[in-house]
Amino acid sequence: MADTTIAVLNKLAELDSRCVDIERQLSDPAVASDVSKLVSLTKEQGKLMPLVSRYRQYKKNAAQLDEAHAILADPQQDAEMRELAEAEVETLAAQQATVLEDIKNALVMADDAAIDSVIMEIRPGTGGDEASLFARDLYEMYTRYADKQGWKTEVMDFAPTEMGGIREVIMNIKGAGVWAKLGYEGGGHRVQRVPETESQGRVHTSAATVAVLPEAEEVDVEINPDDVIENVSCAGGPGGQNVNKVASAIRLEHVPTGIVVSMRDERSQHKNRAKAYRILRSRLYEHYQAKAHAERSSARKTMIGSGDRSQRIRTYNFPQNRLTDHRINLSLYSLDKIIMGELDELVGALQDYDKQQRLQNL
Fold first, then answer.
1. Where are the domains of the chain?
2. Of 177, 235, 265, 282, which sits most exposed with the smallest number of CB within 10 A?
3. Which of the following CATH numbers is that of domain 121-362: 3.30.465.10, 3.30.70.1660, 3.40.50.880, 3.40.50.300?
4. pTM score over 0.90
């Protein structure tokens, strides 16, 4: 049996054992009366069961396969029984191979598939006005892709420039498979093209950064109110004008980590505070996850999808109609379609590469 298969089966045995333990805890009256504990365990059970049920089916098939092999190895069995056993071995072996491959795919990608809400932040990098215009193009590319996937998009904060670009956009995207597909987009994006502002026809290079954070639920990240400094002010509009005279803009500073979130998109202080806490919770989740990842083996650093904003992940070359993803050395000569939101081929290639890396690092 291949090392990867042994590692997968060992991991599945651990998850099966954990499921049994959760079932035991859920039947405990003390747990049933603790709402927070009950929600946490039920959520974990819901995430594990699709994998564990496949594993239990795999074990059942394996036992039947052993029985069929035992019949074939028994010289006292008659010809008819041996013939039936041979047919059963062939069928069960094929089923086992299919189930095992399905389990491997689900095991390494299950955590990603379970996250159905993300916070995406897009900001221009180097390149002045052209960088702001490129940031706008990325925003439109992702919203088109989200529409094609049937996901729901909510713009939480949007700061335009006078040239039609954006200084910043923060949006929430919800839907099945959203993190599994958009989780690879975090990092530095570089564009090479003739800017709208260029009169000499020269190709310029500019950049934008994208962050994609799983939207953490309150059960995932607990924020101590004593750790947060909140400031309230009037929301300023374009040209220094006030959006309104009421103090509605919210600024949150998480003292232990130094993470700061400002929100002034809504006229309602209550709505701005709620949005700011959603973003803060997701940034804290990312912060603690990154810290946990750094403490793991260096082999895991080879995986893509880390979302490191300082890492240049991709180049968009408009003159050549080429998109290059530097993490997997993939070039696609269909940039015109990609920028219109047709990301399936690119996302599929990233998922396939990531899956192989994860299997090797089990």
1. 3-113, 121-362
2. 177
3. 3.30.70.1660
4. no
